[in-house]
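notes to self, project folder thing:

trying the whole complex as one job this time. last attempt i did each chain seperately and stitching them together was a nightmare. two parts in total, labels are on each line so i dont mix them up again. if this works i'll redo the older ones the same way
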Amino acid sequence: MLRLLLALAAGAPLVARACEPPAGFSMRADSERYAVFFRADPRVISVGNYFSVEAVACAKAGGTAPEGLKVDAQMPAHRHGMNSRATVERAAPGRFLARGLMFHMPGTWQIVFDVQRAGETERATRDLAIK
Amino acid sequence: MSQMSRWIAAAMVLAAVAPAAADEAVRFDENETAMILRHGPWPQPPVRDPSNRVSGNPAAIALGRALFFERRLSPGGVVSCAHCHAASRSWTDARAQAAGIGELVRNTPSLWNVGRNRWFGWDGGSDSLWSFAIRPILHPAEMGADAGHVALSLRADRQLACLYEGAFGLPGNRSPANDERVLVNAAKALAAYVETFVSGRTPFDDFRDALERGDAASAARYPLEAQRGLKIFAGRGNCAMCHFGPNFSNGEFHDTGIPFFVKGGVDPGRHAGIQRLGADRFNLLGNYNDDRSGDSATKTRHVDAQHRNFGEFKTPSLRNVELSAPYMHNGRFATLREVVLHYSEIRADRLHSDGEALLKPLKLSPREADDLVAFLRSLTDPQAEQTALALSGIPNRCAGSTSR
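result (full assembly):
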């Protein structure tokens, strides 16, 4: 028991370092194995204005960062997505910049991250209330 | 039930019935109020188009004004922009479908506040006001000109040549490349002029501002039927989702169940608009975009062609909508009441398969339909006609030096 606790305590910082929100990244989306921390530029997303998204994706259990990320969004209640297609650029391992997103209606939008690693894709989503 | 609770129950029933029954003040809930406030303030700061270096430039606006009314821009000398966009008719032609040299299949939209658009044309086939302005000049059924004809007209007439020089300098020797530059400059001057078509405040704007200030006395001046119509517009009608923002348009494309059959085929709407945009040499990805930062081309770079675009058309602004009948991309409806009844009875099966869940038959009562029409009429600027006439007055004679 004591050994387990010690192991956990020793392990914890490692895991946290692997997957901790970088400073200034206020939003988070989760899939089973990954966390995506993200922020928008401009910071406040408003109807009808194009924005980009800076995202940091990491494996919650630690380990190498995801190689790829796709970013999209939809309005589940209205059954439609965006009218623009985001392009994603990898800025550093696990760090991505998506450009060209735009929400054309007020309401609940779901931002969708497809996290890619080792030929597998996992989806992390997050609901955003857009006014 | 105690006497007291019976009384409370009766009062609640009354409260629930009252707004629909009597001519009583309309209550807007938190969501409706927030939505209403997003439709202002008005006017908004003037538009400046970074892709057009003469946007807002008085000399270019003067040239644009002269060109807008210039019939000689079309080779037969008959059709000017104003032929279809008449100042006395809220910048339209009052026809269901436009006619220039030939017949078109679409309705002439009003040009009020058009500078606020993201895309131009019912299908958004252009990404700037100036690149759109090239289209009617060259279109064989509209003005039927070419770059050479436009460049020649601008050189041949002393007044036009003088105005051109004031805005852009001398046009240079005649060559295909120079003629094209003159055509683009003429279109940019037209755009600078058309950007000044800004409508004024309306009864709705006064109400909106009163609501924001919490000024019940001023708010009460807005007719009750318009208030009830506004409640449908911002609430259960979902109208404000698409007709969103100070200009009452989200600037994007939707299928509202208007049949798109035309003589000999269909009008594919946004689907063809995206193709046209991509093929347009004058789009914002091209050399004539004056915005060196590249930001203005973001929309064009990221536009996404999708299956559902087939039969989608641009959400029109509703400011001054009362003045620009008939309605819809093909002029299908003669009155605002017909438009409202269309939304009331909309057939879900007429919409595209992945049609949006926003449009369902509203099943409006006759009074609710009247209310919605009353609301739409409250978007009319009472000074609109005067403003349009002032904007179309004859410009001063050009006093610049013509060094030819």
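what i see at first glance: The mean pLDDT of chain A is 88.
need to look closer tmrw
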